């Protein structure tokens, strides 16, 4: 039996003294790919921040049975200030936690890793440009590089597919599928239709968490969970067609 990376038990958190998530239970294993869905304001980002240690734990437990795993985090786009004056290279290398921030340059190994990530994302032309010059999809790629640069055991992405085009979305999903062979992934999305071929299980977050150990969920179940999300996200294209869609 493999050891879980994270065990959350009866956890509650919120802002000031207001509880926004209660009685949350979730276990994350090293090869998991969990889709976190739920309505706006349901607490998805708050859950992510709780796992990252950025939220106070009001009650319950957040345990790391084999030590705190390395975590990579791609924040929700609305929380990133695009006018912030840093280059793509600087943005990506800011994800290096091992980096000595008192020394303004990278060592040889870090430089090599940085170049490798920039190449993988196809961002060579933009490496020394300010992040404000990137398209939505390119910015998400740079943020993903930042999340990956320290080789995380758990990758957390908060709505990476907003403000990006369909081509980027497909590219991202292929990338995530490959990454899941080496790390656990938590993918927050309001669009269960497009992520369902990718994920292995579903966590429905709306004040509390309902775990669903499969990548398919019916509208009826979503209703029972009070979890209204866009089950069919592409107008006339039925959900079924998307399920058989091959991301390889
Ligand atoms: N910094 C904050 N201060 C106070 N309340 C917040 C803050 N961030 C989020 N909230 C509230 O917590 C609830 C959950 O928000 P959030 O986790 O962002 O939901 P989601 O990511 O599912 O849209 C919402 O009611 C929201 O208004
Ligand atoms: Mg959110």
DSSP strand tally:
9
CATH class: Alpha Beta
Strand content: 15-25%
- Major beta sheet, strand line-up: 5-6-7-3-8-9
CATH superfamily: P-loop containing nucleotide triphosphate hydrolases
Enumerate the spans where pLDDT stays under 50 for 5 or more consecutive residues.
Answer: 232-248
Can you characterise this structure?
The structure is a single chain. The protein contains 8 helices and 9 strands. The longest helix has 14 residues. The radius of gyration is 18 Å and the shape is globular. It has a single domain, classed as 3-Layer(aba) Sandwich (Rossmann fold), CATH 3.40.50. The strands form 2 sheets. A 6-stranded mixed β-sheet has the order 5-6-7-3-8-9, with helices on both faces. Strands 2-1-4 form a 3-stranded antiparallel β-sheet, covered by helices on one side. With 248 residues, the chain is an alpha/beta fold. It starts with 5 loop residues before the first strand and ends in a 5-residue tail after the last helix. Helix content is 28%, strand content 23%. The relative contact order is 0.18. It binds adenosine-5'-diphosphate and magnesium ion. Adenosine-5'-diphosphate binds next to helix 1.
